[in-house]
Amino acid sequence: MKFKNTLCAALLPLLSVSGFLAPSDAMASSDIDCPLRDAPFSLESPLIDIMLSESASAVLNRHMNDVLTKIPSHFASTTPPSFSAILDARKIAAMAGVDAAILPQIEQELATIPVTDADRSARCARYDTEVPQLPVADGKPRLLLFEKINGFKDTPSFNAAHELLQQMASKQGWALVTTDNGAVFNTQQLSQFDAVIWNNISGDVLTLSQRQAFRTYIEQGGGFVGIHGSGGDPTYFWDWYVDELIGARFIGHPKDPQYQDAKIVVENNQEGTGKGLPAEWLMNEEWYSFDSSPRNKGATVIATLDESTYNPVGHHGTDLGMGDHPIAWQRCIEQGRSFYSAIGHRPEVYEDLHHQRLLLQGIAWAANKTKDSCSTPATTLNKSHGESR
Q: Which of 16, 45, 197, 336 has the fewest beta carbons closer than 10 A?
């Protein structure tokens, strides 16, 4: 069996700065607030939840030739970060070459397994509910660097992005605060920040109330920056995040070779987020493909890939060609802003000056510090620090 090897991140310490923001929001207990807590077992269940249940695991092993005993260790772990958190049982069946005719029987047997209190507790254990105290740094814009990982992690790319963002913050005078605690996604603490940066985040990382706080923050004027793996999971369990905030679903990257030279084409380098970038440049990277162009959801595309300059063939010979192939884009979501760049797997690309400029200007746009912006954000989000975005 061959399993897809993707991305994501490792966890680093909090940025050391003095002072603290004391939260007033009390987050709901994971036992009553985590996604899929009560969901019946099914082929759409996260693989990690199947593996946490002896009964559900037995069903898959019985019908899939003991598949769970044969998968690689980074798939098999039930302790995050784990690839099992970003796959569902249906995908593992396809990857294992299971005859599709047996899937209805597997689905039926899974559905008969009761969801116990032990199952609920195990499912919720990977989410955070204790609201952290956050250090406060002087500077503008105020940015939250979020680094919690439940899915697959790629330490080199995560570390390179983290280091670059800290260097940028120091040089630009940003107030950058770092956390790997999902409970920071509450109304009061999010209101302290102009934008939230997700550094190669993989896996479902927010409870239901945290999701709602984040969505409200964005729709009422907050900013989001997603880097590479933050839009690269093979399976998502929060549709709004991938379909609206990111705006396109990852479908794969080239396999052989995984890293290829390709030409990046900048759509507008005279103004906006692409200003000052070359009209095109060559980069060696792991190139993501998506199920559709984010233009279909009203995104402003910053850069695309020239597919004639590399071989967009994925695992098992899958054609990953998109034709129109955006690789970095931005879009307004009600009053908020979302910037996403699929560049960022190889650590070396964080040393590329053009990539650095793209990220710098994308962050500035997401934090509403440019003329090219969305509608005026709600002032209620800014009362805590007495300034408009």
A: 16
340: left (phi over 0), alpha (psi -120 to 50) or beta: beta
Task: Name the pTM for this structure.
Answer: 0.88
Tell the burial category of 17 from Cβ atoms under 10 Å away from its Cβ (0-12, 13-18, 19+): middle
b/e map 152-184, b = 16+ CB within 10 Å = bbbeebbbbbbebbbebbeeeebbbbbbbbbbb
pLDDT tens for 65-83 read 999 999 888 778 999 999 9
Long-range contacts, stretch 44-47, CB < 8 angstroms, 24+ apart: 44/88, 44/89, 44/90, 45/88, 45/89, 45/110, 46/84, 46/85, 46/86, 46/87, 46/88, 46/204, 46/235, 46/237, 47/75, 47/84, 47/85, 47/87, 47/88, 47/89, 47/91, 47/92
Q: Which two tokens stand for residue 162?
A: 């983290």
CB-based contacts of 383, cutoff 8 Å, min separation 6: 191
Question: What does the alpha-carbon distance between residue 66 and residue 31 come to, in Å, rounded to a whole number?
Answer: 31
Q: Token pair for residue 241?
A: 């995040």
| Helix boundaries (H) for 70-130 | 73-76, 89-95, 103-111, 117-124
What mean pLDDT do residues 321-325 have?
97
- The model's confidence at residue 32, banded by pLDDT at 50, 70 and 90, is low
Helix (H, G, I), strand (E, B) or coil at 71: coil
Q: How far apart are CA 141 and CA 175, in angstroms?
A: 6
Which residue(s) pair with 297 in the sheet? Answer: none
HSE, side-chain direction, 13 A CA sphere, residue 66: 2
Largest CA distance in the chain: 61
- Could you tell me which residues are beta bridge partners of residue 331? 338
| Cis upstream peptide for 80 (omega within 30°) | no
Q: Which are the contacts of 117, defined by CB distance < 8 A and separation ≥ 6?
A: none
